[in-house]
Specification:
The chain is built from six helices and twelve strands. By secondary structure, the chain is an alpha/beta fold.
């Protein structure tokens, strides 16, 4: 059973439909005990950084999510869900993220159209210690991004995308996968990525 965290701010119908296509059972929950015990958990995200973080905290889920990710248990973080792994975001000054990554999430510059809406190429870092997936085209809808990859010494692998320069579009380690793009909207390539995560392809 895949437990999808109900943050109250994300539209998750497309994600639910993607799991349905894969024949994967899912449940929408904000129950910390279910999130702690589940084999697979999804932290989705569409909307404002401050609102999403506030909902996680109001539901008492911060420690449960952080502990699960730090333990490397199968967890998928999508779009704003990935951004919430950072220390903070320029979108919401003073709001503390989950702090998995010691970085601030920053806005694209005015040199490009913001938000980035549409398809772009995702390229795994050739130096990653564990190659998780091949390059592919993914669907993005974001105004903010992680600008620098985690230190390789931490065990995180990463993929990049070029928009206003190179930014980190995905990171993965153990059973944890975080995507700035939307795999559930990224066609057959995205479906394959979701299946790979479900099957334990990172471990």
């Amino acid at each position: 059973m895949i437990e999808i965290i109900n943050t109250g701010v994300a539209n998750i119908r497309s994600l639910q439909a993607a799991f349905d296509r894969l024949g994967a059972a899912w449940n929408l929950t904000d129950d910390a005990s279910l999130i702690e015990s589940a084999s697979h958990v999804v932290l989705p995200g569409v909307g404002a950084y401050a609102a999403a973080v506030a909902q996680v905290d109001q539901r008492g889920l911060r420690n449960t999510i952080v502990e699960r990710i730090n333990a490397g248990r199968p967890t998928l973080c999508i779009c704003l869900g990935m951004q919430m792994l950072g220390q903070s975001s320029e979108e919401s000054p003073g709001v503390e993220g989950l702090g998995i990554l010691p970085y601030e999430i920053k806005r694209f510059s005015d040199n490009v159209k913001v938000p980035q809406l549409g398809w772009n190429t995702v390229t795994p870092n050739s130096n990653s210690s564990k190659q998780f997936y091949d390059s592919g085209e993914a669907y993005f809808a974001n105004s903010f991004r992680l600008g620098e990859p985690p230190d390789a010494a931490t065990g995180w692998n990463h993929a990049t995308t070029d928009y206003d320069g190179s930014f980190v579009s995905s990171i993965w380690k153990d059973g944890v996968l975080a995507c700035q793009f939307h795999p559930e909207l990224s066609g057959p390539w995205g479906q394959q990525l979701l299946q790979h995560w479900i099957d334990g392809g990172l471990a």
